[in-house]
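We give its fold:
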Amino acid sequence: MDSSSSRGKRTSLQPMRAAGRQRVEELLEAASDLMAERGYEATTMAEIAARAAAKIGSLYRFFPNKEAVADALVKRHIAVLEDEYAALAKRAAMLSPDALADVLIELLVTLHPRVKSLSALMEARTDSMEIRERARGHAIVGIAAALRVCAPGLEDALSRDIAAVVLNTMKVLRGMLAKDAPTTPGAPDELRRMHRLYLAERLTPFRNVLASTTDTEP
């Protein structure tokens, strides 16, 4: 019987040594690959250990059950999202709306391999709604922050509305590229063009607001 059915009290072990941290990364990467390929429920602890070329005892040493592995993966994926959106906000000051549109539209596509099991975890976990809302919330906050850096006059509420539209556009593009959404050979490029036009139209009026205000002050 897979230990995922056992909800033991023991928490995951946090390794102190570099070798232990490396082993945990290998185990989590193996788990992420398997869950993305087969789903959360179908993945077993034995398969995770085998994929990581580790002994099953090594896996149980760090994670008492599959639920603990999933918890660690969720934390890992959320941390990746936070880091990427923080880096994006720093770059946004030097980007035009068109350039920011290109960066944003590709972001989810490039992020997907690093958080590949997040969809499987959201589909299978009893707390899937909480996980989904956390991931979506981080994405909207992160994108909105980048939009406000690029267009300093943009109000917070409007930046979040635009961010939600951007996020859905990013998801549609990823679906097209993965052939999970209706598409044609030229459709992804058309979506990118539409995205550039949308952001240019929405952000440009707010880009020079602070400069104009400074210029008119006595």
In short: The two ends are 76 Å apart (CA to CA).
